[in-house]
Amino acid sequence: MSMFSGSIVALITPMTAEGEIDFVSLERLVHYHIDSGTRAIAAMGTTGESPTLTTSEHLEVVRAVLAFAGGRIPVIGGCGSNNTRQAIRLSQEMEGMGVAAGLSVTPYYNKPSQDALLAHYGAITRASALPQILYNVPGRTGCDLLPETVARLAELEQVIGIKEASGRLERVSRLKSLCGDDFLLFSGDDDLGLDFVRLGGHGVISVTANAAAAEMASLYRAALAGDWSRARALNERLMSLHQNLFCDSNPIPVKWACMQLGLIDTHMPRLPLIPLSASGQDKVMAALNQAELIGRG
User: Fold this and answer.
1) pTM of the entire structure?
2) Which residues are documented as binding site for pyruvate?
3) Catalytic (active site) residue 109
4) Which of 141, 202, 210, 282 has the most CB atoms around it within 10 Å of its CB?
5) Given 32, 108, 163, 255, which residue is catalytic?
6) Any stretches that span the bilayer, and where are they (predicted)?
7) pLDDT tens-digit profile of 12-53?
8) Is 176 part of the annotated catalytic residue set?
9) Domains observed in the chain
10) What does the alpha-carbon distance between residue 188 and residue 156 come to, in Å, rounded to a whole number?
């Protein structure tokens, strides 16, 4: 398996009760993922609350994850922005740090056209040699990176893959036929991830893996080895978690789940997100129980 395959975690950024970065919990999370068999860590993606961290905080978190990982696991750095100059700056900084690749979300809010997306990513790749994984999540960005546009971007040497979170499974075969077998395809939808791999995807960049790292690692090891019965059984156990971790805006529910599992000390997100409601807590706790994660340690 390539280092970019299987279960890759879209890492949360733990915060203190005051909303500052909790580096003690962050180190605990990195060791937990290494010990659990997570294949790579995507730090400071949008699950890491990148839109609400300052640039210096953003880079400090990625540096810390690299230091805590100590070369034992590849680190992907979130370097996307709706500001092309900022995306270039982040890519250049991370190239110098030694991250394995960047994860570059489509510009949110601006609603760029397909030609504008080509121009945006073209500018980034001209300014930095960092390998880039595109990230398409139209439900959060208001912008859909179409397969035909991805195919044109895949011609750029630095563009090595995509995290596809449109919820449209038919895109897997379309992307494969347009971009070739070497172009990396990751699901960004945990509930569709197994089907995504069955159709030819390489793995998942996962929210669920924050709370169920070993289970997700086992699930995707089984899937990539063709052991579909084991993969299906694990996925069924986790399905309620895949779904209920989105009962409120990500990463609100998964932060609460990780606190329940003792992985982080508080479940504070940063404003404008607020902590999980009581009804949301009931849903996530039920899902954690169904996944057999409560009391496992």
Assistant:
1) 0.97
2) 47, 205
3) no
4) 210
5) 163
6) none
7) 999 999 999 999 999 999 999 999 999 999 999 999 999 999
8) no
9) 6-225 (3.20.20.70)
10) 22
